[in-house]
């Protein structure tokens, strides 16, 4: 049986394994990609229990996973991560990831799985300590990705005057699947 996947589909730990000897969280835990309207099973998305939709439109409900809709506002460029609206949106997505009610694995997506998804994944990886160069390379695995775009996002996220968008320890605990001590 041939499995199909959305555009820019990948397991983020698997991708990080291209550059890291040890991946920072278990395989199959956080998956990214594009819209899945034509997918027929959860296997096509890596068997997520939760799907976080970053696009404006709703997700189809035919796969049965828990759906969380956190669309980015279209009034601001999502790569401008120094902008307060973009930072609030990213923080809301990261809060959904660290929420104890979130069931893992998580599939996070937008329409193409590149721009909005790429910004959120970059924020996630930077917060857990993945080096900037590897965050850039992971982003560039997406079809149509541009280095300048992710660098703009990283620069806004790494601005020293900005507070972290979510507690990095809570994010690590969520990604590893461990309860807070």
Molecular structure report:
- With 181 residues, this protein is an alpha/beta fold.
- It contains six helices and five strands, in the order E-H-E-E-E-H-E-H-H-H-H.
- It has a five-stranded mixed β-sheet with strand order 1-2-5-3-4.
- Helix 3 packs across helix 5.
- It starts with 9 loop residues before the first strand and ends in a 5-residue tail after the last helix.
- The model has no long low-confidence stretch (mean pLDDT 90).
> Termini, distance in Å?
43 Å
State the major sheet: 5 strands, mixed
Count of extended strands: 5
- The overall average pLDDT, rounded, is 90
Global structural class? alpha/beta
Order of helices and strands: EHEEEHEHHHH
Helical coverage, percent range: 25-40%
Q: Unreliable stretches, pLDDT < 50, 5 or more residues?
A: none
Cross-sheet strand order for the largest sheet: 1-2-5-3-4
Number of helices: 6
β-strand percent reads 5-15%
Shape: globular
C-alpha Rg, in Å? 15 Å
